[in-house]
Specification:
The protein is α/β, with parallel strands linked by helices. It contains 30 helices and 26 strands. Among the domains are: 37 residues, no CATH class; 102 residues, Alpha-Beta Complex (Aspartate Aminotransferase, domain 1), CATH 3.90.1150; 154 residues, Aspartate Aminotransferase, domain 1, CATH 3.90.1150.10.
């Protein structure tokens, strides 16, 4: 007999696994939305004028197996040598328990930023551990929950000093011993803000001429200096003192707080996070308590819930860009939460004694290395060091470097006559012997008495990591259980849909994630010779080509580490272009009122003035207002920033007119790529008149959100802007990140996604995302108003659900609906933006019809509960929405006077009976958390009470 051929794809083809609805389900959904076909729906939704002229041509989609085999071949082109280059990047050992239970666990890597604290208690505790670790090691009272990398943390500290300093001076002093990439990124940030950068040796600082100063500790060439006197001089001049410190060294060295530093920054990369050719890694920032409101980034604090139980939340959110916009302390949005969690778990795993032992071993090995070199007659500097020495070799520099590579070791080229060596946790005795051989030492006298090369005055005397959490988990069994307990408190994509508008919480497939931890990708230093990273270069080039085809741009820069940083880099590129044309005076940026909060915050970072454009009644840009303000500011118009499709979830038909008006008045067009998931394969920002856009690889291209990072925000530009793209941090050029390609160890995820989906699959994913959003909008029709739709009554890939009327009719707010959705087992949609009091829903293409229906059923049930309140059948103040979310404790405690049953409160429609997600706390008190700010771990008895 013969079999009839089937169109059913093999199990490992991504476009079968990635797209949620099956073909038969799509047919049912199309019937619901009233479209004859998916093509007809897309034609209804996207104006013909914006449609791409050609389909994506990526060749045939690969299966998972084929992609993984291909990735192995490409990864094999990278050469994994032992890199002793230092410069802020170190060899480290990731405990397998952390790799398996955090980095490779979707319960951690698929979570979103913890803006909904009730469903985020696990990662909030882990991030609070991170803050406690940083606060203890630096000796400063307040720490944030991570920044993008050390170099950008330095730049943030500089601008924080500018905001906080009482000095009238315009200068900022940078220690010449800072890592070169730190200096480069700070210079980039300083230029548009009119900050005069002064680079020099610490003793050359003139405190009265600066509003702040930053010092590297230990220095990039190894120096260990005490900056106490420098801090005193700065304070005398009403200036701010900053130290960028290696946190591992602080287990042995005098902490910045003891020197009088106001701010400390640095990288926690060597706390168990591999080099990854530059990232991602969690930077840290700590400061004095008096400066906490000027600090950028997120801060986890301790509050209480509705029943008085301890609960964690993000504190002081009014500082952030999504609230304050152009008045924000920074444009920071995505940070490095997942990597901060890994670093915190590294500290929990090792404890203070373990960290100190690691630091001592590294230092002793460095002393042994230096003694062997000194015994052979080499001049080794400095006298006091932790893990880094610089060796004078004169004309032998190239020969020593080559000999080291022949031994399988990368050293650092310092100037024209010196070689830098930085040892780390992975350094073995045979590594030291190989370095000696590279210097021509065949038989070193190895009978060296162990000693320290640290001055007594620089040895740390204060305690650190005293909290019990850093002493409780020595056994791996307990460590495993601790990480599992935290994960179980949270709701991530491994449990349920996360329908956050403008966040694109799509599938992060296992096959895409696997190569990230391969040693050929993870163990490459960012400053290795190019011939050691040929695999990386092949991947970056091919992915860049694909992104150019997708966007219609001519070149891509992978350097930005987040969407917000992509905005900043894109605007810097435009500013450089204007200067090159002799039009550096252009400094006006037109931004619609509905724009992402990062847009105005990014514009002010490049020294531009924001002119806000009104929104028309249908949610579109008010074209008359746009035209009038473009004409008014024509002479000084730098450009405009628009999001497409709009933040209201609609493809605006006037986009070509907006871009033309901008160009006619000499401006450039920045098209925010946050909503690119509605465009891939269907429309290209470069064809709409865009000159530059960023892409959120952690949205559209499958890099996971990680609970608030990592992310990547590469920018695409038209040909006339290519010369002005961000430069290499070690060379001349406006660098925006510490590493040349940002966080390239994440790129295997996006590359794998493109290879496995192919052009047709990527386009089908976009079409499915639009169908899913329209399906939700249609199913909720009649119960809720969808605030904005296109001319044909369609939405793009997301929709705004208007719940504002119910505040008047029932006393119910969007927060009440959001918390009630937790009872149903869902993360809430985006709240309070772009329209206050609404909910913005984005289902993505990855959710099945069953999950979409579960969400719609929950929302419809919530509407019926609101109706009960409206009709007087339920109390306005005491009802399931106002009391949401309900915990498992609510099942056993006295129910009190609640006029509804336990079943109605705890098991609403949409909630699973057997596998129900139970939030660990009731509604969190936001006001209490800000009024009583506590940003380090609470005492042990609180943990004991929580365990009872």
């Amino acid at each position: 007999m013969s079999f009839k051929p089937t169109d059913y794809l093999p199990y490992d083809f991504a476009n079968r696994r990635h797209i949620g609805p099956s073909p038969s389900e799509m047919s049912q959904m199309l019937d619901t939305v009233g479209a004859e076909s998916l093509d007809a729906l897309i034609d209804d939704t996207l104006p013909k004028a914006i449609r791409a002229k050609q389909p994506l041509d990526f060749g045939k989609a690969m299966s998972e197996r084929e992609v993984l085999e291909h990735m192995r071949k490409v990864a094999g082109k990278n050469k994994v040598l032992t890199s002793l280059i230092g410069q802020g990047y170190h060899g480290t050992v990731t405990p397998p328990a952390i790799q398996r239970n955090i980095l490779e666990n979707p319960a951690w890597y698929t979570a979103y930023t913890p803006y909904q604290p009730e469903i985020s208690q696990g990662r909030l505790e882990a991030l609070l551990n991170f803050q406690t670790m940083v606060s203890d090691l630096t000796g400063l009272e307040i720490a944030n929950a991570s920044l993008l990398d050390e170099a950008t943390a330095c730049a943030e500290a500089m601008t924080m000093a500018l905001r906080s300093s009482k000095s009238k001076a315009k200068g900022f002093f940078i220690d010449a011993n800072c890592h070169p990439q730190n200096i480069a990124v700070m210079k980039t940030r300083a230029e548009p803000l009119g900050i005069e950068v002064i680079v020099g040796e610490p003793e050359e600082m003139e405190a009265e001429k600066v509003f702040g100063a930053i010092f590297q500790y230990p220095g990039t060439y190894g120096h260990v200096r005490d900056f106490t006197d420098h801090m005193a001089a700065l304070h005398e001049a009403k200036a701010v003192g900053i130290v960028t410190a290696d946190p591992l060294s602080l287990t042995l060295l005098k902490e910045p707080g003891a020197m009088g530093a106001d701010i400390a920054v640095g990288s926690t990369q060597r706390f168990g996070v591999p080099e990854g050719y530059g990232g991602p890694h969690a930077a840290y920032m700590a400061c004095k308590d008096s400066m906490k409101r000027a600090m950028p980034g997120r801060i986890v604090g301790v509050s209480i819930d509705a029943h008085g139980n301890r609960a964690y939340r993000l504190s002081l959110q009014t500082r952030e860009q999504h609230i304050r916009r152009e008045k924000a302390t920074s444009n920071v949005c995505t940070a490095q939460a997942l990597l901060a969690v890994m670093a915190s778990m590294y500290a929990v795993f090792h404890g203070p004694e373990g960290l100190k032992a690691i630091a001592q071993r590294i230092h002793r090995k460095t002393v042994r290395l230096a003694k062997g070199l000194e015994a052979a007659g080499f001049d080794v500097q400095p006298e006091s060091y932790f893990d880094t020495v610089t060796v004078e070799v004169g004309p032998l520099q190239a020969a020593v470097m080559k000999s080291a590579v022949d031994e399988g070791i990368n050293l650092r080229r310092v100037g024209g006559t010196k070689v830098g060596i930085t040892l780390d946790e992975r350094t073995r005795p045979d590594t030291i012997e190989a370095v000696w051989r590279a210097f021509g030492i065949r038989q070193a006298d190895d009978d060296f008495t162990p000693e320290y090369r640290l001055p007594d005055a620089m040895v740390r005397t204060s305690d650190y990591l005293t909290h019990p959490i850093f002493h409780m988990n020595r056994a791996e069994t307990e460590m495993m259980r601790y990480m599992r307990r935290l994960a179980d408190r949270d709701l991530a994509l491994d449990r349920a849909m996360i329908p956050l508008g403008s966040c694109t919480m799509k599938l992060n497939s296992a096959a895409e994630m696997m190569p990230v931890t391969w040693r050929e990708f993870s163990l490459i230093h960012p400053f290795v010779p190019a011939d050691q990273a040929l695999g990386y270069q092949e991947m970056i080039d091919d992915l860049s080509d694909k992104l150019c085809e997708i966007t219609g741009y001519d070149a891509i820069s992978m350097q930005p580490n987040s969407g917000a940083q992509g905005e900043y880099a894109g605007l810097l590129t435009i500013a450089a272009y204007h200067r090159a044309k002799g039009e550096g005076h252009r400094n006006i940026c037109l931004i619609p009122m509905s724009a992402h909060g990062t847009n105005p915050a990014s514009a002010q970072m490049v020294g531009w003035k924001v002119v806000v454009i009104k929104t028309a009644a249908n949610g579109d840009i008010d074209l008359d207002d746009f035209r009038a303000k473009a004409e008014q500011h024509s002479e000084n118009l730098a450009g405009c920033m628009i999001t497409y499709p709009s933040t209201h979830g609609v493809f605006e038909e006037t986009v070509h007119e907006v871009t033309k008006i901008t160009h006619d008045h000499g401006g450039q067009v920045y098209i925010d790529g946050a909503n690119m998931n509605a465009m891939v394969g269907l429309s290209r920002p470069g064809d709409l008149g865009g000159d530059v856009s960023h892409l959120n690889l952690h949205k559209t291209f499958c890099i996971p959100h990680g609970g608030g990072g990592p992310g990547m925000g590469p920018i695409g530009v038209k040909s006339h802007l290519i010369a002005h793209l961000p430069g290499h941090p070690n060379e001349e050029g406006a660098a925006v990140s510490a590493a040349p390609y940002g966080s390239p160890s994440l790129l295997p995820i996006s590359w794998s996604y493109c290879l496995m989906m192919g052009g047709d699959g990527l386009t089908q994913a976009t079409r499915a995302a639009i169908l899913n959003a329209n399906y939700i909008a249609k199913r909720l029709e009649g119960a809720y108003d969808v605030l904005y739709k296109g001319p044909s009554g369609r939405v793009a890939h997301e929709c705004i659900i208007d719940v504002r009327p119910y505040e008047e009719t029932a006393g119910i707010t969007n927060e009440d609906v959001a918390k009630r959705l937790v009872d149903c087992g869902f993360h809430a949609p985006t709240m309070s933006w772009p329209v206050a009091g609404t909910l913005m829903v984005e289902p993505t293409e990855s959710e099945t019809k069953a999950e979409l229906d579960r969400f719609c059923d929950a929302m419809l049930a919530i509407r019926e509960e609101i109706r009960e309140i409206e009709e007087g059948r339920m109390d306005r103040a005491n009802n399931p929405l106002k009391n949401a979310p309900h915990t498992v404790e609510d099942l056993v405690v006295e129910w009190g006077d609640r006029p509804y049953s336990r079943e109605q409160g705890c098991f609403p429609p949409g909630a699973f009976r057997v596998d129900k997600y139970w939030p660990p706390v009731n509604r969190v008190d936001n006001v209490h958390g800000d009024r009583n700010l506590i940003c380090t771990c609470p005492p042990l008895e609180d943990y004991a009470e929580a365990a009872e």
